[in-house]
Specification:
single chain, 417 residues, alpha/beta, six-stranded parallel sheet, 17 strands, globular
Amino acid sequence: MTVFGTRPEAIKLAPVIQQLEARDDVFETVNVSSSQHTTLLHPFTDLFGLRIDFDLEVMQQARTLSDLCAHVLRSLDSILAQVQPDLTLVQGDTTTALAGALAGFHRRVPVGHVEAGLRTGNELSPYPEEMNRRLITRLASYHFAPTPGNRDNLLAEGVPSERIFLTGNPVVDSLQAIRDVVSSVPAVDRLLLSTEGLRRIVLTTHRRESFGEVMSENLRVVRRFVERHSDVAVIFPVHPNPAVRSAANAILSGHPRICLIPPLRYEEFIALLAHTWLIISDSGGVQEEAPTLGKPLLILRENTEVPEAVTCGVARLVGGDPLRFASMLEEIHDDGLWMKQVQNTSNPFGEGDSGKRIVEAIEQVLGVSSVRVCRQDGHFVKCFLRAQPQREQSIRQSQPATARSWGGRSSAVAAGT
């Protein structure tokens, strides 16, 4: 059973779900959406063809992080009791992921964590994501680490090596798939035409720790930079959070070379990034996308959970000093050496086969070996033959394949996720 609820989760879990569904002789997938993101999420589930079997619609009732966590936890408990999955799969560090991992732990269902082992070292930055990911590590049975550095973080925290799988990051799979099939996007084509001949900067900022004066100061630096350089244009897909919208409108509106636009679909955003001169962002996901696209990135944060983007040379940390941010922009504008170096950097986050690697690891830990058709109650159903691995026995008692019914369907899901 896969649990997600935000745009980044959908992007990064899509390759895993697609690989699981390609093995429908072995797995039955059950997808649960919390809808922690509402308008931002569903265009991505449509884009990647993700089926949603249960939609919790939590934002109709949740107003705080605690409300959100409690509602997801309560709703998932009844779904877990109904579906009885062999694995609960969560991704990243959202409140949905934390609640999904805790719900699985409460039901003694093994939890698999995609994008495990990311750390900044500061439990309050990013907030609440850093603490969420630390807690998920304690709850998870299996850890799918994108990089060797992530694996080392987990080992340093006492996670057994046999429960860690080095897989790369599935965001690379999704990005490559979109880049390969999308050649022209009308909404982006219009932006490119209006900024033709200019150095395009794509700006995104939405993190909670950036709200208030930190975000305002960063936006003022960006506006002054555009005003000083007539060859620069900024394109800012503005996050729907009121704190972001109000700051963007107050500080950046009214300039002919600053484009404030609504959030883009993923294929539109990737098409835009492919034609940019520089990216400025506080997003963790963008830090993973920039190396795949070979685009330089200034990170509007004091620390990062993906230091590989910095060490490989694609990204630079701005920190919390507006004067340093302004100085970095001027240096980049006057010296094109970094831009050329970034284009020749290898991607530290994988080669686009992470979804396949994760599913192979799931097959290993579940001990799936084969499938046959058997007769139960006068009906033919799939029954899975399993070689129960020793390490799973310590988490959950072995049980025979049986036909179970949920959502009006009857299937053998003893080896499903």
